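Dear support,

I submitted the protein below through the web form. The confirmation email said the job was done, but the results page showed an empty box. After a refresh the structure appeared. I'm attaching both so you can tell me whether what I see now is the final result or a partial one.
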Amino acid sequence: MRKKALSPACRRAYALKAVERGLGSGRKVCRILEVPRSSYWYRPREKTPWEQSLLKRMMELSDKHPRYGYRRITALLRQEGWHVGKRHIQSLRRSLGLRVPPTKRKVIRRGHSTGLPVKAEYKGHVWTWDFICDGTTRGGALRMLTILDEYTRECHVLRADRALKSGDVLEWMSRAIQQHGAPAFLRSDNGSEFIAKTVQKWLAENRIKTIYIEPGSPWQNGYVESFHGRLRDECLNREQFWTLTEARVVIEDYRREYNTFRPHSKLGYLSPERFAARKSAPSPSPVGLRPPYAGDGQPNNNPLETKTTLKD
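What the results page shows now:
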């Protein structure tokens, strides 16, 4: 079954094809297909050198980052000095067929989340850590440890190995603390590596309070789960790892690009490092929510404040 022609561009294309096949004159085909003759005879103007340069750079960024949509591509172009709007880039990408296939959206959990007893209010306030698994082409297992700052979204550790035990977890946590300082709270699930007695003792000695989510409730650790979704979509699903060394190099390159280059939609399309460098940066919104825009570069994630403002 052929798709019904609804858009003017589609009807114009059908009209041109009908005239090429000799099914009628241009006037007759336009009358039957209800295509304005001005649209039928329209010829697009040639692109200016500026438009050609913009199109070339946009295609280069799209080829380098095939999972980036028009919003992130627009943010990257603006960082390079291009004065473009997101709708302009969306139209150009659409005309070239560069639409990113949508992923299946998860149902947003509503109501008060018991997994967020402490919300990160500054850098180093709350860290979160978790594991993500993958494999090499030869069938070897890959297990990756992620340590993330919930406020700035910076990924401090992304370590790949065949197996990671509690001792390895503490070693990489110690390295992250030496470089970035110790967090006040640490959020995690109830994995054996995180609830081991040695880990509990070490955290208590360093005065780091723990926040354990409910068993079987990964949505209560949404920040690291969101990061793992981006990691799998933009890196793991695109790469084939033949060896552990290759996996470590590629994954570490992604971590650095994520921290220093990748625009983050919840941080006003700034990279985590640029967001952390801003002393007066507003608090980012929770993962999975799209609240009303507050006009300060960050969404307003408190519905009670919105209602109060409306009442006043």
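Response: this is the final, complete result; the empty box was a page-load delay. The CA atoms of residues 152 and 275 lie 7 Å apart.
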